[in-house]
């Protein structure tokens, strides 16, 4: 592996870890307001604290058994409306995570239904919870095996409703195919290194401004 590639990887990993800790303090809506406007698109991944794996959408199913590198299944787009409600969409297939009338998980092509809308909640420890905007007693959750967790057990199995958000920036053209070349990897790494440094600076300044406003 070329030394330049190794140095860039270490550089990216450092700022990615720092940025991850900062992102945990902000909601998706707040992050969206800080993101630069350009050709790149923000994609998210949700790490389940209960299953120790990533939320993935495939065919007509969703679970939390995905691997971070399997971007075709685990890359998500978060669409926020003016009321702060969020729709969770698979970046490649355009399928949405929703609830059905039986209050179970359902995967749909149209995410405009109220059952596909969520509100993000941040816990004091920096984890994210997704509350249904359709019914307030419903939360998105997965058990230790990555299967759907019954929302009625949120008080006894709270850990299974906690997520860590990961984000990265990709070119919109990358969302149309799962395959990529080595040249694409290098180009994406170059872009990631620059944008992660930019995001680190922006998020850091935003948090400092909030701290200064309270002192």
Concise overview:
The protein has 215 residues and is of the alpha+beta class. It has helices at 3-23, 28-34, 71-74, 182-214; strands spanning 40-48, 53-58, 61-66, 76-80, 85-90, 96-99, 105-108, 118-122, 128-132, 163-171. Strands 3-2-1-10 form a four-stranded antiparallel β-sheet. The protein has a four-stranded antiparallel β-sheet with strand order 4-5-8-9. Strands 6-7 form a two-stranded antiparallel sheet.
Number of strands: 10
> Poorly predicted ranges (pLDDT <50, ≥5 residues)?
1-15
Count up the domains.
Answer: 1
Let me know the average pLDDT: 79
Q: Main β-sheet: number of strands, strand sense, barrel status?
A: 4 strands, antiparallel
Secondary-structure element order, N to C: HHEEEHEEEEEEEH
Relative helix content = 25-40%
Tertiary shape: globular
- Which CATH class applies here? Mainly Beta
Number of helices: 4
Strand content: 25-35%
Task: Output the radius of gyration.
Answer: 17 Å
- The span between the termini is 49 Å
CATH second-level architecture: Trefoil
Fill in the CATH topology: Trefoil (Acidic Fibroblast Growth Factor, subunit A)
Structural class: alpha+beta
User: What topology, given as strand order, has the largest sheet?
Assistant: 3-2-1-10
Explain this structure to me?
- The protein has four helices and ten strands.
- It has a four-stranded antiparallel sheet with strand order 3-2-1-10.
- 30% of the residues lie in helices and 27% in strands.
- The longest helix has 33 residues.
- The chain has a single domain, classed as Trefoil (Acidic Fibroblast Growth Factor, subunit A) (Trefoil), CATH 2.80.10.50.
- Helix 1 runs parallel beside helix 4.
- The protein is of the alpha+beta class and 215 residues long.
- It is globular and about 50 Å long.
- It comes from Brugia malayi.
